[in-house]
Amino acid sequence: MEKPRFKVIIIGASISGLTLAHCLDRAGIDYVVLEKHHDIHPQLGAGICLLPNGVRILEQLGIYTAMESMFFTDRFGRSFSCLERRDLLKKLYTELRDKSRVHVASKVVGISTDEFGISVETEIGTVYHGNLAVGADGVHSIARSEMWRVAAIQEPGLITDKEKSMICAEFSGVFGVSNPIRGVKNWQSVTYYGEGLTILVLPLRENSVFWLVISKLDRKYVYPNIPRFSRGDARCICEPLASTSIWADVKFGDLWERRRAFNMSALEEYMFEVWHYGRIVCIGDSVSKIAPNSAQGASMAIEAAAGLSNMLRKLINGGKGLGKPSYLEINAMLHRFNRAQLQRLEDIHTDSHFLVRFQASNGLLARAYACMAPYPRDFMTDGIVRAVTGAMILDYIPLTGYSGKEWRPLTMGETLVRAKTYYRFVRLLSVTSIILVPVLLSWLVFLQFPI
Ligand SMILES: Cc1cc2nc3c(=O)[nH]c(=O)nc-3n(C[C@H](O)[C@H](O)[C@H](O)COP(=O)(O)OP(=O)(O)OC[C@H]3O[C@@H](n4cnc5c(N)ncnc54)[C@H](O)[C@@H]3O)c2cc1C
């Protein structure tokens, strides 16, 4: 009789979940994907930029070539690619070899786990049995909540209150897709620095432009009290910006008038320390989320899926998908995975945290930043290069074609010198303005009212 195979239950069929499905398929590991929505690729009005680290893995999986015709190419050659988010999801789904393993309208409501296996229950009452549950279910993750619940029973205090209150938001984003406008060429991205807000414009293909208005919220909100926004809220932010010139003779109103879809959400930022407990592990936005300015969210979700499948494949009978590792072996593997992900993400979170605040600052500093922004031209590139150089790949599929070879990354030394110089410059400017502004004001007052 055939031995039962090791089975992974993936919760969420978005970027992390579908990428993991591809990785497991290529590793010969059994899996099933449960998605709460009926539609895997809804029109949410969002675009997505994949950086070379994400693209390289999709290329290994044979999906990048399939999407290539949709991509827009800029100074990074093929390696920096922007497209509509729903097109990426559509490709990830249609390229799956066995779509019968993806179950839509299957909202997960509970997970039970013991030493021998895992049971995942959906709202419609179906129970799926397996050996490992992977939460790829985004910010409001049920997998994460269930992991915390199980940990609280078995190891009280492991997940601290500080860890649980880590999700917070200081910025919101209105994002939309518009028909193309004259004045923004299809290789050109635009960043507009306003008072307490940033407008990012990225042409996707010949027939669409993705834009994002990032603004500061009135205060820092902590989950679960982070506000939800309506399209009415989005209008309140966008309509007053209609006459704002964002580039040459292009006004924001030109984009707004041509919008095909738009939406608004809080931009949460967090990185949890603990990504696994027992037979539950979380990846992607369920455990780590960065502001969209650095465009690393999706690429890091893809990397996490690849990193997990590398380790799983090694653990399960050297890639034959037949062995049943013990509970302790699974735990040790998940611990190594967790540690590797935290190491990988640390700098990316720091850079992204800085970037969103830098781009959406207000007052005198904002003006100074906006004037300076065009000059340290390589700063953005350096951040991107720094994030890409340490990237993970699938270690069981060979790299092909142009994957990383056409693009010479800066050496670590070069990158650090440039980044550090720039940070020092920005800090110096902040400190100088804090000292100089009061001195200047006192001097003006003195001129007005001499003693
Ligand atoms: C406006 C905006 C612009 C962005 N731009 C970029 C960009 O340019 N580049 C970039 O790299 N990143 C970008 N990001 C971030 C990127 O979209 C995310 O990091 C990425 O989508 C993470 O994917 P995920 O699969 O982990 O989670 P999600 O995309 O949130 O997917 C979670 C999935 O789980 C499902 N689910 C949730 N709960 C359940 C449940 N109980 N049962 C079953 N299924 C469930 C959901 O329906 C969903 O399909 C942007 C984000 C925003 C908001």
Can you tell me about this structure?
The chain is of the alpha+beta class and 451 residues long. The chain folds into 3 domains: 219 residues, FAD/NAD(P)-binding domain (3-Layer(bba) Sandwich), CATH 3.50.50; 101 residues, 2-Layer Sandwich (D-Amino Acid Oxidase, Chain A, domain 2); 89 residues. Helix content is 39%, strand content 23%. The protein has 13 helices and 19 strands. Strands 5-2-1-9-18-17 form a 6-stranded mixed sheet, with helices on both faces. α11 crosses α13. The longest helix is centred in the C-terminal third of the chain and has 37 residues. The radius of gyration is 23 Å and the shape is globular. The structure holds flavin-adenine dinucleotide. Flavin-adenine dinucleotide (FAD) binds next to α1, β3, β10 and α9.
- What class would the helix/strand composition place it in? alpha+beta
User: How many H/I helical runs?
Assistant: 13
Distance between the termini: 100 Å
Largest sheet: 6 strands, mixed
Q: What is the name of the CATH architecture of the largest domain?
A: 3-Layer(bba) Sandwich
Under CATH at level 1, the class of the largest domain stands as Alpha Beta
Beta-strand level of the residues, as a percent range? 15-25%
CATH topology of the largest domain: FAD/NAD(P)-binding domain
Helix content: 25-40%
How are strands sequenced across the largest beta sheet?
5-2-1-9-18-17
Unreliable runs: 73-78, 403-410
Number of domain modules: 3
Bound molecules: flavin-adenine dinucleotide
Transmembrane segments: 384-404, 425-446
Protein name: FAD-binding domain-containing protein
Domain FAD-binding: 6-88, 131-318
Pfam family, one: FAD_binding_3
